[in-house]
Amino acid sequence: MVCFIGRSNVGKSSLIKALFSLAPEVEVRVSKKPGHTKKMNFFKVGKHFTVVDMPGYGFRAPEDFVDMVETYLKERRNLKRTFLLVDSVVGIQKTDNIAIEMCEEFALPYVIVLTKIDKSSKGHLLKQVLQIQKFVNMKTQGCFPQLFPVSAVTFSGIHLLRCFIASVTGNLD
Question: Least packed by Cβ within 10 Å: which of 53, 70, 123, 148?
Fold first, then answer.
């Protein structure tokens, strides 16, 4: 089991849809309006594992967000990895820091995925990657040391992230 968490409008549902576009049983609806996911959505990927699309935090977050997500993350023993999505255009925000602190406090293995790289200039993206990489190296314990920059629009970085998910869930042949 893996879960995707991030701010509202960071592109969680779009990323899940892009990642599992080859798995017809994973049918993800993507809304035009940010903050549309209000409950945890579970998607079975064949017989292999489950993907959880968490509601977004920050703008339009559901009232019970903290209770729902904290309880889930704390008590889910079969959770292999948490994917924390950060918008590459704006970088790590205060609300992202709260999610990072939660992952650190619960000693969860997590990965930072930079979304919407198609919306950043190469120079801006490089600056964000270096800044976030420095943050990960100096301020985190449980974060995987490699960032995954991706675009759900151009599919850039999707294959590598797909392979990483297959690896952490034990589904690499």
Answer: 123
